[in-house]
Specification:
Strand order of the largest sheet: 1-2-3
Strand content: 25-35%
Oligomer: single chain
Number of helices: 1
Helix content: 10-25%
Number of domains: 1
Order of helices and strands: EHEE
Mean pLDDT: 93
Largest sheet: 3 strands, antiparallel
Length: 73
Amino acid sequence: MTNPIAIHQITRTDATLLNSVAPDVFDAPINAAHLAAFLAEPNHAMFVATDADTVIGQARGMIHHSPDEAPVL
């Protein structure tokens, strides 16, 4: 039986999921200080797809605030 692909939102609590990342998921190796700064921002979000214990995909976004429009991701 194969493992299903799972989606996880990355937080400071489960950032260790990023210890095993498939090639080409990110443009460069993950920098711990940059990751901590990203996760400390409440308007930032990162989701990853995992197959077993390996991250195989990722999506990042941030909530953009404007003075004349509702916030958007």
